[in-house]
């Protein structure tokens, strides 16, 4: 009887092993066959809240890889000399250190190229004026812009369709080798949504793994403290109202006191909404990696962080200036030079040294 029970147990065990070994490993299947809708691309969010990925374009390994290829693909431009990465260099936090980017034939842009990272937490439009609601829509505009990449989408599709490498990659990512502009935009959206920056010294400090210097700590206090001129000993620079939260921004469009009404040369958000109340309002960018992304403001007018801090110490009033700045008029924040230096030191703790060297974001060619 005991031998019989043992034999039955052995048969059951052997059968279970055979059945288990015959099951397909989803990750292996994706590597071999390339297309697996359930093979989601991982995103390290750290202490960030969960990102809001579009439900109709969930990140997959194959989709992100295709988007990465397209991001660095110079055939997206008319002259095959320029890619998205030309103006969004990973070495400068996916930004351009030129005041204005140059197009395929040397045309000069009209606004400073915005940095590309943590876009998965952006939900109020793209570009300085927010003219694109979705990242997939934004991704196609520079390709067609005559002062940027100056190419038609029809030509882009033809060039990619002619290359077997891309036909294979689109098959892997989307289950079809018939390339179209919608799939191009979805792949680019996936890659840009995958770029995450949350490994700065400040992040380590929040996690209890780093200590700020005395100067950086003074800058941190100034950054987060309210401006209260009646109590100068505890008054701060009040930066967090516009640059708060995990990503150091507020999902708003604001006039931050750069110019008086008579000096407005770019009407900003008003171009999109048609509202005079939006004149000279621009998207509030993240301050993460700000050390790496000069020059500053929508028109790149400030070359250094020191100039930026000087500006906020004494803003210029206008009809649409954000009310948050009104309380500091007419005397400004009255920051000392030591205060200004401390703020710059703190801002530099937001630099993520891993962003430029992360192989997931590098040129795949």
Description:
Helices cover 36% and strands 1% of the residues. The radius of gyration is 25 Å and the shape is globular. It is mainly α. The chain has helices spanning 2-22, 26-33, 61-71, 84-87, 135-144, 153-161, 164-174, 181-194, 201-206, 214-224, 270-273, 305-313, 337-348; strands spanning 253-254, 282-283. It has a two-stranded antiparallel sheet with strand order 1-2. The protein has two domains: 61-198, Cytochrome c-like domain (Cytochrome Bc1 Complex, Chain D, domain 2, Orthogonal Bundle), CATH 1.10.760.10; 201-348, Cytochrome Bc1 Complex, Chain D, domain 2.
Major sheet summary line: 2 strands, antiparallel
Principal-axes geometry comes out as globular
Rg over CA atoms, rounded to whole Å, is: 25 Å
The total domain count is 2
Question: Kindly state the mean pLDDT as a whole number?
Answer: 90
Q: Name the structural class.
A: mainly alpha
N→C terminal distance: 66 Å
Would you tell me which CATH topology of the largest domain applies?
Cytochrome Bc1 Complex, Chain D, domain 2
Uncertain runs are: 1-36
Q: What sequence of helices (H) and strands (E) makes up the elements?
A: HHHHHHHHHHEHEHH
**Could you give the count of β-strands?**
2
- Give the full name of the CATH homologous superfamily of the largest domain: Cytochrome c-like domain
CATH C-level name of the largest domain: Mainly Alpha
Q: Strand portion, in percent?
A: under 5%
């Amino acid at each position: 009887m005991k031998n019989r029970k043992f034999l039955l147990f052995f048969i059951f065990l052997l059968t279970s092993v055979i059945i288990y070994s015959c099951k397909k490993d989803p990750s292996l299947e994706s590597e071999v066959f390339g297309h697996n809708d359930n093979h989601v691309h991982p995103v390290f969010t750290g202490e960030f809240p969960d990102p809001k990925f579009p439900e109709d374009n969930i990140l997959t390994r194959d989709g992100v890889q295709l988007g990465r290829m397209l991001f660095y693909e110079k055939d997206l431009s008319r002259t095959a000399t320029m890619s998205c990465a030309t103006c969004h260099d990973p070495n400068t936090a996916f930004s351009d250190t030129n005041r204005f980017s140059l197009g395929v034939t040397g045309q000069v842009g009209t606004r400073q190229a915005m940095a590309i990272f943590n876009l998965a937490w952006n939900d109020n439009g793209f570009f300085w004026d927010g003219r694109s609601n979705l990242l997939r829509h934004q991704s196609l505009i520079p390709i067609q812009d005559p002062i940027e990449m100056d190419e038609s989408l029809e030509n882009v599709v033809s060039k990619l369709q002619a290359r077997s490498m891309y036909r294979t990659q689109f098959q892997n990512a989307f289950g079809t080798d018939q390339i179209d502009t919608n799939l191009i935009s979805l792949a680019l959206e996936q890659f840009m949504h995958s770029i995450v920056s949350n490994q700065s010294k400040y992040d380590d400090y929040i996690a209890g793994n780093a200590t700020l210097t005395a100067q950086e700590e003074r800058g941190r206090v100034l950054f987060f403290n309210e401006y209260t001129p009646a109590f100068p000993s505890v008054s701060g620079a009040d930066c967090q109202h516009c640059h708060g939260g995990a990503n150091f921004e507020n999902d708003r469009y604001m006039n931050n006191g750069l110019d008086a009404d008579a000096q407005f040369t770019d009407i900003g958000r008003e171009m999109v909404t048609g509202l005079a109340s939006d004149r000279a309002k621009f998207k509030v960018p993240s301050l993460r990696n700000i050390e790496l992304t000069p020059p500053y403001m929508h028109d790149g007018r400030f070359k250094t962080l020191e100039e930026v801090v000087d500006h906020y110490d004494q803003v210029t009033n206008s009809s649409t200036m954000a009310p948050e700045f009104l309380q500091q008029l007419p005397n400004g924040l009255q920051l000392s030079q030591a205060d200004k230096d401390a703020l710059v030191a703190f801002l530099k703790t937001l630099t993520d040294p891993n962003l430029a060297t992360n192989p997931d974001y590098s040129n795949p060619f």
